[in-house]
Design goal:
single chain; alpha/beta; Rossmann fold; three-stranded mixed β-sheet
Length: 212
Amino acid sequence: MKNTSEKLIFNEKNIQFSSNNFINNDSIKINLLDNYKSLDSLNADIETVYEIEQIISRIPFIKKANVYLTVNSDLIIQVQEKKPVLNLYNSDYLLSENGQLIPKIDSLNIDLISFFGEIDPTIYINLSNLSKMIIKDDFLKDHIKYIYSDSLSFYLSVNRFNYNIELGSLENISEKLNNYKVFIASIMDDEILNKYSHLNLKFNKQVIAQKK
């Protein structure tokens, strides 16, 4: 155990990021200085290390922080940022891969699919999962323009064609997207697809197509 009179050594070079879209060494240091008058007089003990880890973890861009001391009392800070997967267009936030909010930064432009509409925070994770499925699918990531909702359902807007896709709820979303891909593959004719105005995926194992 460290001697309580020993002081930890803070060096910005010992702040490690898995990625740094939102924060950098300076922002970590500023957050710490908001809580401590000086970083040069902190005790090299487990209580201080835990407290620093909690301060960093409360930064809204941070998914996880790991803080520890070396045998020489050097403070090591490892930071993992939240990863954005969706732009909540009508708000000041992005949505992370785990359904957590990330404040938008005006100077930072990240190319993300957008969501338009109101949403209950209890289903942030479902909306995040939908966006991740679209991003990870080679066909869908180029095909889907944006996601939107009304009081009854969630919808997808697509590139190239004029129809919208009704999803209903965000339950069984993987099956619904697969049903849509099978439907598209069975037609593969732009002229036919352009005759539709609405595709309904709400029901199990079927796509209900409505013509213009």
